[in-house]
Amino acid sequence: MPQYFIIDFDxxxxxxxxxxxxxxxxxxxHPDRKKIYKQIEDLTNAAMEGHLSFxxxxxxxxxxxxxxxxxxxxxVKHLRKKVSASFSRNRNFFKEHSDEVLIVSGGFKxxxxxxxxxxFIKTENIYANTFVFDEHGNIIGYDPENPLSxxxxxxxxxxxxxxxxxxxxxxxxxxxxxxxxxGLIKKFFAFTENIERKTIVEKADYVTPSFDEFLxxxxxxRAISYPKNRIKCLVVGDVADEAVIQLGKEGYNIRIRAxxxxxxxxxxxxxxxxxDTQPTExxxxxxxxxxxxxxxxxxxxxxxxxxxxxxxxIFDDIKHNPRNSDFIPKRVxxxxxxxxxxxxxxxxxxxxxxxxxxxxxIHIHKNVPGILAKINAIFALHQINIVGEFxxxxxxxxxxxxxxxxxxxxxxxxELKAIxxxxxxxxxx
Length: 429
What we know:
Elements: E1 3-7, H1 9-13, H2 18-26, H3 33-48, H4 54-65, H5 69-80, H6 85-88, H7 91-96, E2 101-108, H8 109-116, E3 126-129, E4 131-133, E5 139-142, H9 153-161, E6 166-171, H10 174-181, E7 187-191, H11 198-201, E8 206-208, H12 211-217, E9 232-236, H13 241-250, E10 253-257, H14 262-265, E11 268-274, H15 281-286, E12 292-296, H16 301-309, E13 313-316, H17 324-338, E14 358-366, H18 371-381, E15 386-393, E16 397-405, H19 411-417, E17 422-427
Parallel strand pairs: 1-2, 1-6, 2-3, 6-7, 7-8, 9-10, 9-11, 11-12, 12-13
Antiparallel strand pairs: 4-5, 14-16, 14-17, 15-16
């Protein structure tokens, strides 16, 4: 059965509401700009939450814009920088499914098309409104005959298209949910990476804090192996707010506690702590999911050694060093995203380059002879081509990163995990 992906644009494919951003450009020098911005935002939210008809909201917003073609050029440049992070890193999905991805939006083709076509989305698969201009290039309205300018427009459009197959809807607003309400899509995924509307979340089949989550749930190929929103980050002690904000922007699930509690540490993939609130060896013994610790201060030597034996990397810095708030989260994210261990307190140093069109696998094991040979024997047995491989060791562990050609039997992962003396193994991307 064919599958189609019906994707919203504003606050879904992009992080922002385009008409709101257009108002900030077109009204930049208007004396009452703040008042008008607020009116436009209120009209947007009222429609998205189902409190005002879409047609009324759209008409009101366009009337307030006072925009022209030159403003649209500036808007497109701005929107290209505001594509949602999880959509941006999954460009290959759109390339692989260019025939099945449809952008369906109450926005306007004049700014949507030049943004989404950069992601292999076909022009003929973009459904949106169109502006009406006067002879001077000023926006004076829009095509009222377009179903997407009307109340229930997405429902009307999908009925006209009459797509035969399994349809998935991804969006953040009431008009997106209506597709499920009227039985036109199989499942509605409330997209909350940029904004979470309670009235929409409550009605959704699934809540997807990122596009990675949508791909993961439905077992589609994706840029990262495991959605970041599923990785919990426990924050305890005196940790800079700026550092926590950085991890939050990356999409990690943040939990803040006054002290380390076993039940939260055992669920965490990342721990942020300070010099006076470090985990004990007993706590680390039970923290099977923990991959990395960022310590704001100097980590205890005994904890560094024990964590190393458990395959847990630690990044630390001098207590109250002003660079902490930026240095530590960046090192943690470099490890989580690329496998880099540079400047760690307890792992051998490795800074592998990013390899495109490949999968990256990380294998941490006890430093005993023959492990690399066993790893490569598994790849050879399954006829998998290695495009890059890096091995570093210290007295306790060996750390191997292998980049392999895309496409392999999942059994490979099972066999790599089963190698004797393996401490931790994960598929990075």
